[in-house]
């Protein structure tokens, strides 16, 4: 009887452990998810498989397992005594399991109850053998019945698991399940031969993950010796195992493996990686020297690696003293800031030393020559780096001296360390002048190459010189159109045009019949010797002759007549420009020769006396400025003034007359006149102020904008007049153009018609604000053309949703877009959708096919992407066939991607035959399931503009490449064609505006939503308190330039301050309150009158509001210092009184109360009435009887200017997030008067603190304020 309780406990524990152990064996899912390291050499540890989870089974199987668990839990498992358990024998696993154990000797003893079986091996007849003296007791019988019932349930579970294939009975199925991510099990592969076969199967299968999993299984179930032998038999397994160890940075284990396998080179690579990961340079040198002294690098096969490490150590030892010396020099202010030279490459080190220490002698450690000599750099490497460094320092003379001193120009003057074009590019990108660049371009002998380079690098004088030498009048005229009207180069070109030897080839080709090629070349202006040389080149001669024949054939009689007029009578740039302007203005009317000659100044003779008198009057008008600035006065402005009076005067004569009269007035040039640079100011201005003025001037000149949108449109919007589309550059005129324009003007009444066409797939951002202002603003205000103003107050602007992509469009975006347009102050003439015109667009597509301009194509999307894709084999299919297939597309006869409608045109960007229609089986939010084909942007945009009679299609610069398809499609269908004008996109630094990236920020809980005030969406800016007028003014300052515009948020914040400073009511608030109590009783007012600021009604006296006052007030903690070390601190201290604004009281400190941490808790002060005698240096704000509120202070969301740039932020934009971009103050104090007028989105100025807005999170019990901007620009942001 004494053994009976132990027997019950043992049986219960036995059943529980045995059954649960087997369950774990059968349902082990992932070996890598966590297996104990305490295992046999050949077998799994059967008690700690942590990957077991009932969630992996179907619900009915899981139910059986849960039932078994519930039954097991009913048994008494509170006691297990190992000594008592040792009395009982029995094999806890099947006998086959133990038979298979003998295949490999065990080096470890199992830790679970299976070890009991080894002690009484003679009792192996039944899975459960129990010795007891009372087999007939009721408890024993009850326990037997329970065990039988559980065993039957366990058998049922085993059968179900086998049916559901939660383990694989063969090698191929196991590896297949592993590779496809299904449940797999390794428990049944116990013999060494099975494990080899399993590994071989994984390798044959070719799946890296499967190979890695099997290798890890073998590592944990085989002895190290057997495991390494097995790896040597299967080389692919070795490479995968090494890769696995590298990925987990298990360097010690990796080194041990590589050493045991004899892979010396890979072991050396691991050692180098470990050394290079050390960040401290001195420690890294020590590790390098230690590694070179012995170890793996002693192997003779690693000579190259040893040399590399030795050079690396030498370089670090060379860099450290240079860096230390330069840091000391920077602290003393004698050296500009540079990145540390430590741990940079040899060439980077050379570049660093060339930039900072080029002049040092060769025996100096930091000398570039010392670097070159020590590390064996080639002359070509040294010279190239030196040129780049000197170019960055803009030392052009030193570059020329370097090249000449070394004779690098050579006999042919082209023996350079780099190509001459590379040299030119380096000089140009670093700001070299045209004269500096011209020196090197002149080294080329090929005129065409010289001309190409001179144009590329804007060497205008050289271009003019080359074209004059080539006698190419047409090219010269074209190039003159790109020059400034008052430039010296233009005057030189105009003079050259009067030379009769410069021909327009087409004119002579069309008028003359050449008897032979000799006469042809003579007409081209070639000399006798040049003619003979050219005739020897038969290919060139044939090309010239062919060109002459084409010109004769293509030039009509009327063209020949006009060429005569242009060549003979229009002999300057001014004449040519006026002629072209006249022809464009009279394109719709008959040509009047007399009117043309009058407009172009043909026949007008400007005498030398007229030039002399006009120049004299202009110089007299500018005499005062000329005397002050002398020869530094811009001559171009004088030429421009004379041109206003004498537009047809000869340029060269005009320039000579100005030079002569300036010489008479000012005398010869002095040394100071010949020096470049600005005049030194007479007054000494502090460096800080001078720098600030210079920065402001640079910013002002950088952005060619205006103060307001109205002013911008009046002064900068040089767009065409409605109906004069043909005057714009690149506009295509067809025989039907003028009739279409006439009908268009009848419909619009000559009004400006624009549109804002957003895609409703996201929230509008600051970039859209520019488009909104330009689209709506241009239609709203007047504009200028040729100094005349045309009123467009009756102009209209559509809000058209480009809803052609139903997959991405949501109703909330439609609503939000319209709200933001109206918030910015604009009301659409009409709200339309591209889907409104789906029927008409479909009919246009049919007509496009009928005219042979479109076809149905079956190429896949990936086949038509990119530049110059594979030509479509269906491009020339019959029109009737394309019409039938297009109808089949409309009727849903094709799968998505199986067919598209493509247009026969190549865009400027190289895109061939863009898609017009594609198949999408997605319901549309407005048309429902009516359509399964949807038009693309390339097809829809221009046609919708034409349908709505848009006069000015205003869009951002990236759509410039679509302009040709825009014009082509309208003209291909003989529709009215609007004019597309482009402007630059507006980008803001320290921001992301991508929809995908903003969603990622929300998902990562970095921001709250699209309207988080740290973003630059319009909803976010609204919530932050930015006034719409400020955003509009900011856009106006950016101008209408097509140059890439990326600005600092400070510019936007400055516009916000300008608006809020005159619109936001001022109130007192304390963000970091410090309690102040008056010690002496004085007569205090209960209420204080405070003037209302700003006073928007200038014709009336300012209003007033009342704030409460008391003997206990709160001030900003920053306004008090116990001991002010800073002499500029003018506020409250223990020795310095301070005044209270609006009260007429002065506070004098008497006592400071602090807490146990030394923090100020309360100030006891004495107050006096303000007099002339006690007037303090400073007055501070305060609050009395305040109410608590929450204040949110926002900073930049990102640290770097371009968080999306992988060069600036290699880790991605999420790693650049500023974690301190939001600071919440829960208990700021405001005056009671503020609560009465604070409504959501109301903006206020907290005196001496900043501008704030009431957030929508505010409640009746507590207000929440967002800081819009500080009162002054935070210089730390720069």
From TrEMBL:
Residues 1179-1255 form the tRNA synthetases class I (E and Q) anti-codon binding domain. CDD domains: GlnRS_core. SUPFAM superfamilies: Nucleotidylyl transferase, Ribosomal protein L25-like. Pfam families: tRNA-synt_1c, tRNA-synt_1c_C, tRNA-synt_1c_C2, tRNA_synt_1c_R1, tRNA_synt_1c_R2. It catalyses: tRNA(Gln) + L-glutamine + ATP = L-glutaminyl-tRNA(Gln) + AMP + diphosphate. Residues 577-651, 655-742 form the Glutaminyl-tRNA synthetase class Ib non-specific RNA-binding domain. The keyword Cell cycle does not apply. Residues 1064-1164 form the Glutamyl/glutaminyl-tRNA synthetase class Ib anti-codon binding domain. Residues 99-136 are annotated as: Disordered. InterPro entries: aa-tRNA-synth_I_CS, Gln-tRNA-synth, Gln-tRNA-synth_Ib_RNA-bd_2, Gln-tRNA-synth_Ib_RNA-bd_N, Gln-tRNA-synth_Ib_RNA-bd_N_2, Gln/Glu-tRNA_Ligase, Glu/Gln-tRNA-synth_Ib_cat-dom, Glu/Gln-tRNA-synth_Ib_codon-bd. Gene3D superfamilies: 1.10.10.2420, HUPs, Ribosomal Protein L25, Chain P, Vps16, C-terminal region. It comes from the Eukaryota. Residues 99-135 have a biased composition (Polar residues). The keyword Ligase applies. Residues 751-1061 form the Glutamyl/glutaminyl-tRNA synthetase class Ib catalytic domain. GO terms for cellular component: aminoacyl-tRNA synthetase multienzyme complex; cytosol. Keywords: Aminoacyl-tRNA synthetase, ATP-binding, Ligase, Nucleotide-binding, Protein biosynthesis. GO terms for biological process: glutaminyl-tRNA aminoacylation. Belongs to the class-I aminoacyl-tRNA synthetase family. This is glutamine--tRNA ligase. It comes from Trichinella nelsoni. The gene is vipas39.
């Amino acid at each position: 009887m004494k053994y009976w309780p132990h027997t019950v406990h043992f049986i219960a524990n036995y059943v529980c452990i045995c059954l649960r152990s087997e369950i774990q064996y059968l349902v082990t899912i992932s070996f890598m998810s966590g297996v104990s390291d305490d295992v046999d050499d050949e077998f799994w540890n059967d008690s700690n498989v942590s990957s077991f989870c009932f969630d992996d089974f179907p619900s009915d199987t899981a139910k059986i397992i849960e039932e078994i668990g519930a039954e097991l839990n009913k048994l008494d498992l509170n006691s297990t005594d190992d000594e008592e358990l040792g009395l009982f024998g029995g094999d806890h696993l099947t006998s086959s399991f133990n038979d298979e154990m003998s295949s490999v000797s065990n080096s470890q003893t199992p830790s679970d109850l299976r070890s009991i079986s080894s002690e009484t091996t003679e009792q192996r007849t039944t899975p459960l053998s129990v010795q007891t003296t009372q087999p007939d007791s009721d408890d024993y019988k009850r326990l037997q019945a329970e065990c039988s019932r559980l065993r039957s349930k366990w058998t049922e579970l085993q059968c179900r698991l086998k049916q559901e294939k939660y383990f694989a009975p063969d090698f191929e199925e196991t590896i297949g399940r592993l590779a496809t991510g299904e449940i797999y099990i390794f428990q049944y592969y116990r013999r060494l031969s099975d494990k080899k076969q399993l590994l071989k199967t994984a390798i044959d299968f070719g799946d890296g993950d499967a190979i890695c999993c099997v290798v890890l299984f073998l590592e944990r179930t085989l002895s190290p010796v057997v495991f390494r032998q097995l790896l040597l038999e299967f080389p692919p397994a070795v490479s995968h195992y090494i890769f696995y160890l590298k990925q987990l940075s298990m360097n010690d284990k990796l080194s041990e493996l590589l050493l045991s396998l004899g892979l010396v080179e890979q072991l050396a690579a691991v050692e180098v990686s470990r050394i290079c990961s050390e960040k401290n340079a001195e420690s890294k040198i020590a590790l390098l020297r230690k590694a070179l002294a012995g170890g793996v690098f002693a192997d003779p096969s690693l000579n190259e690696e040893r040399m590399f490490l030795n050079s690396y150590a030498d370089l670090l030892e060379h860099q450290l003293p240079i860096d230390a010396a330069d840091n000391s020099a920077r602290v003393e202010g004698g050296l500009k800031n540079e990145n540390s030279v430590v741990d940079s490459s040899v060439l980077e080190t050379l570049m660093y030393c060339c930039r900072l220490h080029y002049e040092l002698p060769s025996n100096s450690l930091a000398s570039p020559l010392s670097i070159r000599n020590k590390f064996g750099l080639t002359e070509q490497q040294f010279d190239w780096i030196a040129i780049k460094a000197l170019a960055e320092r803009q030392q052009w003379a030193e570059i020329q001296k370097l090249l000449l001193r070394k004779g690098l120009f050579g006999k042919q003057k082209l023996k350079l360390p780099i190509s001459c074009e590379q040299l030119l590019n380096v000089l140009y990108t670093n700001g070299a002048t045209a004269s500096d660049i011209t020196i090197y371009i002149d080294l080329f002998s090929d005129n065409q190459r010289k001309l190409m380079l001179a144009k590329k690098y804007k060497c205008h004088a050289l271009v003019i010189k080359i074209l004059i030498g080539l006698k190419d009048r047409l090219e010269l005229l074209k190039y003159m159109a790109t020059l400034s009207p008052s430039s010296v180069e233009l005057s030189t070109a105009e003079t050259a045009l009067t030379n009769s030897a410069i021909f327009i080839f087409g004119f002579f080709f069309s008028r003359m019949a050449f008897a032979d090629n000799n006469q042809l070349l003579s007409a081209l202006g070639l000399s006798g010797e040049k003619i003979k040389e050219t005739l020897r080149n038969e290919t060139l001669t044939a090309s010239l002759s062919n060109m002459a024949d084409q010109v004769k054939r293509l030039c009509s009689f009327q063209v020949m007549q006009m060429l005569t007029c242009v060549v003979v009578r229009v002999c300057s740039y001014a004449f040519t420009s006026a002629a072209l302007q006249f022809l464009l203005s009279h394109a719709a009317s008959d040509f009047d020769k007399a009117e043309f000659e009058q407009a172009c100044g043909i026949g007008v003779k400007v005498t030398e006396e007229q030039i002399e008198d006009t120049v004299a009057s202009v110089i007299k008008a500018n005499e005062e400025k000329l005397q002050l600035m002398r020869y530094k006065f811009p001559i171009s402005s004088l030429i421009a003034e004379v041109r206003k009076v004498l537009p047809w005067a000869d340029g060269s004569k005009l320039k000579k007359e100005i030079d002569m009269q300036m010489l008479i007035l000012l005398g010869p040039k002095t040394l100071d006149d010949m020096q470049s640079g600005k005049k030194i100011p007479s007054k000494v201005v502090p460096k800080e102020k001078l720098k600030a003025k210079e920065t402001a001037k640079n910013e002002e000149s950088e952005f060619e904008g205006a103060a307001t949108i109205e002013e911008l449109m009046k002064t900068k919007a040089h767009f065409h007049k409605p109906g004069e589309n043909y005057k714009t550059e690149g506009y295509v005129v067809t025989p039907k153009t003028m009739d279409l324009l006439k009908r268009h003007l009848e419909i619009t009444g000559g009004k400006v018609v624009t549109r804002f066409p957003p895609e409703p797939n996201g929230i509008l951002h600051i970039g859209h604000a520019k488009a909104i202002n330009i689209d709506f603003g241009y239609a709203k205000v007047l504009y200028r053309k040729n100094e005349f103003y045309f009123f467009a107050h009756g102009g209209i602007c559509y809000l058209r949703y480009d809803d052609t992509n139903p997959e991405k469009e949501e109703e909330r975006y439609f609503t939000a877009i319209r709200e933001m347009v109206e918030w910015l102050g604009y009301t659409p003439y009409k709200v339309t959708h591209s889907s409104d015109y789906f029927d008409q667009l479909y009919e246009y597509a049919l007509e496009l096919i009928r005219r042979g301009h479109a076809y149905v194509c079956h190429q896949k999307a990936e086949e038509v992407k990119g530049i110059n894709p594979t030509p479509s084999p269906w491009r020339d299919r019959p029109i009737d066939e394309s019409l039938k297939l297009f109808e089949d597309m409309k009727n849903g006869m094709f799968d998505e991607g199986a067919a598209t409608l493509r247009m026969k045109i190549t865009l400027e960007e190289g895109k061939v035959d863009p898609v017009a229609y594609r198949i999408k089986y997605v319901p549309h939010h407005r048309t429902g399931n009516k359509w399964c084909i949807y038009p693309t942007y390339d097809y829809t945009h221009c046609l919708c503009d034409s349908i709505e009679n848009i006069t000015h299609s205003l869009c951002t610069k990236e759509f410039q490449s679509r302009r040709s398809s825009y014009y082509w499609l309208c003209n291909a269908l003989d529709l009215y064609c609007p004019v597309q004008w482009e402007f630059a996109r507006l980008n803001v630094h320290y921001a992301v505006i991508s929809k995908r990236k903003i969603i990622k920020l929300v998902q990562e809980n970095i921001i709250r939503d699209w309207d988080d005030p740290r973003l630059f969406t319009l909803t976010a800016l609204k919530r932050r308190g930015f006034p719409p007028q400020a955003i509009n003014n900011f856009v106006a300052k950016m101008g209408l330039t097509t140059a890439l515009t990326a600005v600092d948020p400070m510019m936007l914040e400055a516009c916000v301050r300008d608006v809020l400073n005159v619109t936001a009511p001022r109130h007192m608030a304390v963000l970091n309150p410090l309690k102040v109590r008056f010690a002496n009783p004085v007569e205090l007012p209960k209420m204080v009158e405070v003037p209302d600021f700003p006073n928007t009604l200038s014709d009336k006296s300012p209003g007033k509001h009342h704030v409460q006052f008391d003997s206990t007030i709160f001030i900003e903690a920053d306004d008090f210092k116990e001991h002010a070390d800073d002499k500029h601190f003018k506020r409250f201290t223990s020795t310095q009184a301070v005044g209270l604004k609006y009260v007429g009281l002065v506070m004098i400190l008497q006592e400071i109360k602090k807490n146990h941490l030394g923090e100020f808790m309360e100030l006891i002060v004495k107050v006096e009435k303000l007099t002339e005698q006690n007037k303090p240096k400073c007055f501070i704000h305060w609050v009395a009887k305040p109410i608590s509120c929450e204040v949110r202070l926002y900073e930049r969301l990102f640290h770097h200017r371009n968080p999306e740039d992988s060069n600036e932020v290699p880790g991605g934009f999420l790693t650049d997030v500023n974690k301190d971009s939001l600071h919440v103050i829960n208990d700021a104090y405001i005056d009671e008067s503020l609560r009465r007028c604070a409504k959501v989105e109301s903006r206020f100025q907290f005196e001496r603190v900043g501008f704030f807005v009431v957030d929508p999170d505010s409640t009746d019990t507590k207000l929440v304020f967002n800081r819009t901007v500080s009162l002054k620009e935070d210089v730390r942001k720069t």
